C-alpha cells in the first residue's frame, strides 16, 4: 500500500457536493481520510468566488499514473469546467505526494510544484501529516504553512461522511 495525498479545490457549482462525491468514489480505491474543509480567498483573479479546499489521504495499490487517470476521470465526471487561466473551476484534484516518490514526466510531477507555496494546500495537508518532509524540508517550517491569510477552516475531517 502507498500513501497518496490529493489536494481538492472547487469554486463553481455545488462545490461541497462535488468534492464529497469525489471522495466517496476515491474510497473504492482504498481507505480515505480527509482534512477539515477550508474556505479560501482565490489565488489569481479576485473577481471569482472563494474556493472550498482540503486534502485527502488515500492508501492505495494504484500506481501513480493509474491514480492520475482516476483523478482526471473524477474531474470530468464533475463536469470539469475551467473558464480562464487561474480562474473558476468546478473540481480540481491534484496528486500532491505519492509515498516518497519523485516523478517527473510530461503528465505528472510529484511532489506537486505548488505544494510548498500554497497555504490552501499546506494547511490541510499538515493537519493530516504534521511531520511531513519533502526534499529534507519539514513542510511545517515553510512560511506558507502558517500564513492563514484569507483561509478559514469551516468544517471537521468528517465533513464529507454521512
Ligand atoms: N485559489 C484558491 N484559494 N484555491 C484553489 O484551489 C485555487 N486553485 C487554482 C487557482 C485558480 C490558482 N487559485 C486557487 O487553480
Structure description:
By secondary structure, this protein is an alpha+beta fold. The mean pLDDT is 96. Helices cover 25% and strands 28% of the residues. The protein has helices at 15-26, 64-77, 119-128, 143-146; strands at 2-10, 32-34, 37-40, 51-60, 92-98, 103-104, 109-110, 133-134, 137-138, 151-155. It has four helices and ten strands; from the N terminus they run βαβββαβββαββαβ. β6 and β7 (109-110) form a beta hairpin. Strands 1, 2, 3, 4, 5 and 10 form a six-stranded antiparallel sheet that branches. The relative contact order is 0.23. The radius of gyration is 15 Å and the shape is globular. The protein has a single domain (2-155), classed as Alpha-Beta Plaits (2-Layer Sandwich). The structure holds 7,8-dihydro-7,7-dimethyl-6-hydroxypterin. Residues 9, 40-44, 51, 53, 86, 92, 120 line the site of 7,8-dihydro-7,7-dimethyl-6-hydroxypterin. 7,8-dihydro-7,7-dimethyl-6-hydroxypterin binds at residues 9, 40-44, 51, 53, 86, 92, 120.
Structural class: alpha+beta
Which CATH architecture? 2-Layer Sandwich
Q: Residue-averaged pLDDT, rounded? A: 96
The low-confidence parts are: none
Give the distance, in angstroms, between the N- and C-terminal Cα atoms.
Answer: 26 Å
Give the number of DSSP strands: 10
In percent, how helical is the residue content? 10-25%
User: Mind telling me the CATH class?
Assistant: Alpha Beta
Shape: globular
What name does CATH use for the topology?
A: Alpha-Beta Plaits
Count of structural domains? 1
Q: Could you name the CATH homologous superfamily?
A: 7,8-Dihydro-6-hydroxymethylpterin-pyrophosphokinase HPPK
Bound molecules: 7,8-dihydro-7,7-dimethyl-6-hydroxypterin
Q: Sketch the topology as an H/E string, one letter per element.
A: EHEEEHEEEHEEHE
The largest pleated sheet is described as: 6 strands, antiparallel
For the CA atoms, what is the radius of gyration? 15 Å
What amount of the residues lies in strands? 25-35%
How large is the count of helical segments?
Answer: 4
Amino acid at each position: 500500500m502507498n500513501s497518496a495525498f490529493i489536494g481538492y479545490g472547487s469554486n463553481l457549482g455545488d462545490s461541497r457536493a462535488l468534492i464529497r462525491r469525489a471522495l466517496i468514489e476515491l474510497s473504492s480505491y482504498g481507505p480515505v481520510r480527509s482534512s477539515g474543509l477550508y474556505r479560501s480567498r482565490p489565488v489569481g483573479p479576485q473577481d471569482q468566488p472563494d474556493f472550498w479546499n482540503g486534502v485527502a489521504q488515500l492508501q492505495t495499490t494504484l500506481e501513480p499514473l493509474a491514480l492520475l487517470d482516476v483523478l482526471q476521470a473524477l474531474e470530468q465526471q464533475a463536469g470539469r469546467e475551467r473558464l480562464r487561466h487561474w480562474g473558476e473551476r468546478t473540481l480540481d484534484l491534484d496528486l500532491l505526494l505519492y509515498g516518497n516518490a519523485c516523478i517527473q514526466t510530461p503528465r505528472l510531477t510529484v511532489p506537486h510544484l505548488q505544494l510548498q507555496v500554497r497555504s490552501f494546500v499546506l494547511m490541510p495537508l499538515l493537519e493530516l501529516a504534521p511531520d511531513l518532509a519533502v526534499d529534507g524540508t519539514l513542510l511545517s517550517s515553510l512560511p506558507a504553512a502558517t500564513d492563514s491569510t484569507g483561509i478559514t477552516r469551516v468544517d471537521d475531517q468528517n465533513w464529507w461522511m454521512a
